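Inputs:
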Amino acid sequence: MSDKTSKPLRLGIAGLGTVGAGVVKIVRQKAALLEERSGSAIAISAVCARNRDTDRGVSLKDYAWEDDPVKLATRNDVDVFVELMGGSDGPAKAATEAALKAGKDVVTANKALLAHHGQELAELAEANDAVLRFEAAVAGGIPIIKSLTEGLAGNDIERVMGVMNGTCNYILTRMEDAGLTYDEAFAEADGLGYLEADPNLDVGGIDAGHKLSLLSAIAYGTQVNFDAVELEGIGCVTIEDIRQAADMGYRIKLLGVSRMTGRGLEQSMTPCLVPATSPLGQLVGGTNMVVVEGDQVGQVVLRGAGAGEGPTASAVMGDVMDIARGLRVTTFGKPASKLVPAQPANTNPPAPYYLRLSLSDKPGALAKVAAVLGEAGVSIHRMRQYDHENDMAPVLIVTHKTTRAALSDALSGMDQTGVVSGTPVALRIEEL
Amino acid sequence: MSDKTSKPLRLGIAGLGTVGAGVVKIVRQKAALLEERSGSAIAISAVCARNRDTDRGVSLKDYAWEDDPVKLATRNDVDVFVELMGGSDGPAKAATEAALKAGKDVVTANKALLAHHGQELAELAEANDAVLRFEAAVAGGIPIIKSLTEGLAGNDIERVMGVMNGTCNYILTRMEDAGLTYDEAFAEADGLGYLEADPNLDVGGIDAGHKLSLLSAIAYGTQVNFDAVELEGIGCVTIEDIRQAADMGYRIKLLGVSRMTGRGLEQSMTPCLVPATSPLGQLVGGTNMVVVEGDQVGQVVLRGAGAGEGPTASAVMGDVMDIARGLRVTTFGKPASKLVPAQPANTNPPAPYYLRLSLSDKPGALAKVAAVLGEAGVSIHRMRQYDHENDMAPVLIVTHKTTRAALSDALSGMDQTGVVSGTPVALRIEEL
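Outputs:
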C-alpha cells in the first residue's frame, strides 16, 4: 500500500532450466512494471544450477553463483528462495528446509516435493514465519492455487477435477485426431521433448496425481495424502477405445477427481470417459483445465497452458509478486496445525463404466459374460459385439451405475469363464 | 500467519437483496471455516437496506440496523463496509466515500460505481490507507480480478476478452437453441427475472461495458475509461443472423475486447461472430467467460456463473477473506497515482465483418452493392443471396479483413444506391 518500503525483494534462484531462465528474463525485462505493481523492486542476488557454463539465453553475470543450493538458500542477501530444481527429495528438499529454517520465503514449482513432504514443509514455514508458495507446481500458468486458496475461500469445496498433465492429453488427442496408436503418439510426444526423464511420471499419472493431492489439501483442509490417490496411467487406452468413446459422445481423458464424501476423501487420477461436449471433453492438445465446484460459487473452470517457460515462469512470478506486495497466506490456506489427516474413502461412488473385452468364438460366449455381470449385480446399459477377427470378437459394454467393487467381482468372474481373452479394459464414465 | 490477531473482522453490509442475504448466510453458516482459513473471526456489526421488514430468509436480529448507509459505513464497530446497493452515484457513492475517508476497507459488487468513479475512489482509498476490492463486480463468482491483479502480475497483458453479461448470452443461446425471436427470448429472460430494472443495462451492453472498463484498468495500468468503450447492444441480432453464423461455423456473442495497441487503448463491447468451436463460442446460457492473454502465460480462460446469490456472495467473501488475512492490494493493481489516462485508440484494427442487408428486386442491384464495397476498399470473401420475399432478398456477405472506417464508408454508400432497404447489420468476426 502507500507506505511500501522501497527496499528491493532479493531472490535466490536454484535451478536454471527453462523455467528458471524464464524467471530471470522476466525479472530483467520487466523491472519497472514489477516495481510499479508491487511497490518494491525485484532483484536477483544469486543463482545456482548444475552447470555454470550452459548458455541459457540470458546473462547471469550480475548475480552471485553458488554451487550448493543450500548455501544459496541461506545467503544473507536472499529474501526469497526460488526452488526450480525438482525432485521430491535430495537437494530440493534440503535447500527448501534450509531456507525456511532461516526464515526465508520460498517459491517453488516442485509438485513432487510438496506431494511427499507438504505437511512438514508447511509446518516448518509457519514455525519460522515464512511463506511457502507453489502456484507453478499445479497446472502451469493457470492461477488455480490462488483461486482455490483465496478467491474461493468463502466456499465449502465439493469437488475438484482436472486434466493436469498436458503430455497425456497431447497423446490422447493425437491418437484421436491422427489415428495414431498409443506407442506412435508416445514416440511423437517424446520427440517433441514433452516427456519427463522418467516418462512414467507423465503417462503413469504420477505427476498429475501429485498435483491433485495438493489441490485436495487446499480444498478440504486436509494434510496432503498423495499415497491415497488411486493412480492409473493411460498406457491401457487403445485407439479402439478412443473411437468407441467418440461414437458414444465421449472423450477419454486422464482425469483427476477429488471429492470429500461421508466415507472419506476420494482422490483418483485415472483415464475416464467424459462427455465430448463438456469443457473437459473439449480440451485438446497440451492444455490443462481445472474444474472447481463450491457450494456457493457452483462450477468454476480454469484453462490454460500447463507447462512451458512462459506459463510456468508467470506462475512463479505471481508468487514472487505476492511476497513483494506483502501478501502472506498459509501454505494450504489454513495453518498447518489445523490441517487434518485425510481419511481415504477407499471405495468409489457408483458410476457407469465402459468395458472392452475380447470374446472367443464359442457358442454362448456372450451369454456367459452377461451372466457374470448379472451375478455381480452389474447391469448393462448398452452392449455391442463386433465381427470376429482371428477367432476373437471385440465386445463393448456400457454399464449402468455400479460400484468399483461389483465391477471387480465381475471382471474376476469373466476371467474364469474361459471365453474372455486378455485383460478387459474398464474405464469410469464421469458425467460432469 | 502465525501471529494473527484473534480480533474479529467486523462487517457493515449495505444492501440486502439476493447477494447481501447470501453474504449474511455465509458469515452465519461458515463461521468456523472462515475463521480457521483466515485466522480471524468474521462478524457482522450492522446492516442497512431500503426496507427493514422484508423476509430475506435469514435472521438479522443479531445486527444493528441503520437506515442511512453513510452512517453504517462510518460506524465505530465496522471495519469493512460491504456495499451491495448498486448505482453509480447516490447513496452507494456517498457511503463508499464516507467509509474510505474514515479509513474503512470497502468491498463492493458495484461495477457502475467503479466504472464511473474508479479513479477517484482508488485515490481516496490510498490516501486513507484503506483497500477497495470489487471481485463481485466482474463476472460473478469467477475470480478474475484476483487472477488478473495478482496471479498474472508478472505478465504484460496483451488482450482481455469476455462474455460478461449472462442475460445477453442467455437470450442469444435461446434464440439459437429454441428458434426464438429476439423479442421472445427477451420476454423469457424477463419472466425469469434475469433482466435489470433498466433492461438496457443488460441488452445495451452497458453492464458488460462497465466490467470491461475495470478489467482494462488492471490489465494495462490505465485509469478506468468507461466512456471510451465502444458499445453496441444485442437488439440488432436476428434469428437469421444466428442461423447464418452457425452455418458458417460461428456463434454470435456479446463480446468484450480490450487491447492496448500502438494507437491507444481499444475497448469494445459489441455483438461479434466467434468460432463455434472456440471456448467463447461454446459458452451457452447464462455462464460468463473471461479470456486473458499475457506475454508470458499465453491464453488463460476462466468460466463460471456470472450472477446469482451464491456465486456473487462467493466473490464478496473472497474479498472479505483477503482483508481478514491481511492481504492488501491496491485497487487496480498499481498505486492510483501511477495509473495513466487511457488514450482511446478510436480506430479498430482490421477485421473481417459479417454483413446482412435486404436487397430490392431490381436488375443490377447486387452489382451496385458490390461496386460500393469495392469503391470503399472492402473486398468480399463470401456472399450469398437468397430468394426474394416481398420483393426483398436477404444478402449475406463476409468480408476480408477491413477497417471499421472503410466499412462505414461502404454502408453509407449502400444507403445511396436505392437498392438496399433498411439499415444493414454489420458484425465483426473475432478469430480467437
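Remarks. Chain B touches chain A through 66 residues (CB under 8 Å). Chain B has a mean pLDDT of 94.
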